[in-house]
Design goal:
Elements lengths: L1 E12 L9 E2 L7 H11 L7 H8 L2 E8 L2 E7 L13 E17 L1 H12 L19 E5 L5 H7 L6 H5 L6 E9 L9 E9 L6 E15 L12 H8 L1
Parallel strand pairs: 2-5
Antiparallel strand pairs: 1-5, 1-6, 3-5, 3-7, 4-5, 7-9, 8-9
GO molecular function, one term: RNA binding
Protein name: CRISPR-associated protein Cas5 family
Keywords: Antiviral defense, Plasmid
Length: 241
């Protein structure tokens, strides 16, 4: 078993799980359906190829919220490509300036292939919608060996933007929220989200419910590892007291 980690950062992201018709909402963190879709696209898996999708959908998924961002709303207009008639005005919701670390756990061979695909994707990655490209490389590395999903989400360095890190400059560690798939009896008390992919076929997309639990991890903050402040006049001040 291995774990593949990804950095999901960009000016805009949108992770829909329940939007319909003219109102397209976003979740507060990346959905499993969207991240598995990103990996499938990188590997060149076509939308209707449910056989190749199945092992990806079986991967265990978790996401860490490194920088929550802010929710923004946009209005969009469209015209029918044939008739030219105006389509209904639609609302689109996004997360601005958000940063996440996502991870999938599963078979080492499969994840090695997906890791290689991320470095040379067949189709380019995007953050929930094609209009939301990543601002940085998505690949954060493949973690082999005994490391579990939660181990990796607790070990990957904080990925927040520099301006966001400066707001927490005096802290030696940061507590971050992790949303992961429930295990065993945890499912009885877990939240659910319909983002377990079954098929991405354009004519009939299908998703099942997935159980999610929330944890926290602590990672080194901006001031971790800094040398203590040294001012030679401190010694003179102590003598004068």
């Amino acid at each position: 078993m291995s774990v593949l980690s990804l950095r999901l950062a960009g000016p805009l992201q949108s992770w829909g799980a329940s939007g319909r018709f003219t109102r397209r909402t976003t979740e507060s963190a990346p959905t499993k359906s969207a991240v598995i879709g990103l990996l499938a696209a990188a590997a060149g898996i076509e939308r209707g190829d449910d056989t190749r999708l199945e092992p990806l959908a079986a991967l265990r998924f978790g996401v860490r919220i490194d920088q929550p961002g802010s929710r923004v709303r946009d209005f969009q207009t469209a015209h029918h490509s044939v008739s030219g008639k105006s389509m209904p005005l639609s609302e689109r919701f996004y997360l601005a300036d958000a940063v996440f670390v996502a991870a999938v756990e599963g078979d080492t061979t499969l994840l090695s292939d997906l890791h290689a695909a991320l470095r040379n994707p067949v189709y380019p990655p995007f953050l929930g919608r094609r209009s939301c490209p990543p601002a940085q490389p998505v690949d954060l590395g493949l973690h082999d060996g005994a490391a579990s999903l939660m181990d990796v989400l607790g070990e990957v360095p904080w990925q927040a933007s520099s301006w966001y890190r400066r707001q927490h400059g005096s802290r030696t560690d940061i507590e971050l929220t992790v949303l992961r798939e429930a295990c065993g009896s945890e499912a009885e008390f877990a939240d659910t989200l319909r983002d377990q992919p079954i098929s991405y076929a354009a004519e009939h997309r299908r998703h099942a419910l997935r159980s999610i639990v929330s944890n926290t991890v602590r990672v080194p903050g901006p001031s971790a590892g800094r040398l203590p402040r040294h001012d030679p006049f401190d010694a003179l001040q102590e003598e004068n007291v």
